[in-house]
Amino acid sequence: MSKYLEKFSRMRTIIADNGGLINSIKTIYRTDELKSGRLVGEDGFGNKYYENKSYFMGRSRWVDYSLAVNLDYDASQVPPEWHRWLHYIADEPPTEAQLVKRKWMINHSENPTGTDKIYVPYSTVKPKVQAWSPPSK
């Protein structure tokens, strides 16, 4: 009986940590799971990063993408400094680590492949092979 009470108590805690019943339903709709953890930090894009060491390794760190992107979130929206923490390359998050910022480093931007913002280069070189076109009448 006590294990059922413990599970019910844990479920209540997770729902409370996700902002109540309505926000928990929205979170399940967006991410297909509910988790509870310690807020580690937030990046410049509005993504929030969490950690709960009671979960299995590989599932104990996660990102809650910004609501601005709604359901159109993608892994390229995570900046490199947070990527290293999410993938266990570093133990300390960027909020605690002293990261080196070089002058040649540019700000992170998401990958626009598959969108209308994609960069398509054009060639200024004459083609080596000329395409055949049928003779006109």
Automatic annotation (TrEMBL):
Membrane topology annotation: Peripheral membrane protein
GO biological process: response to oxidative stress
InterPro entries found in the cross-reference section: NDUFA12
Species name: Patella caerulea
Assembly and interaction partners: Complex I is composed of 45 different subunits.
Keywords: Electron transport, Membrane, Mitochondrion, Mitochondrion inner membrane, Respiratory chain, Transport
Predominant place of localization: mitochondrion
GO CC term (a single one): mitochondrial inner membrane
Family indicated by similarity: Belongs to the complex I NDUFA12 subunit family.
Protein name: NADH dehydrogenase [ubiquinone] 1 alpha subcomplex subunit 12
Functional description taken from the UniProt entry: Accessory subunit of the mitochondrial membrane respiratory chain NADH dehydrogenase (Complex I), that is believed not to be involved in catalysis. Complex I functions in the transfer of electrons from NADH to the respiratory chain. The immediate electron acceptor for the enzyme is believed to be ubiquinone.
Places the protein is found: Mitochondrion inner membrane
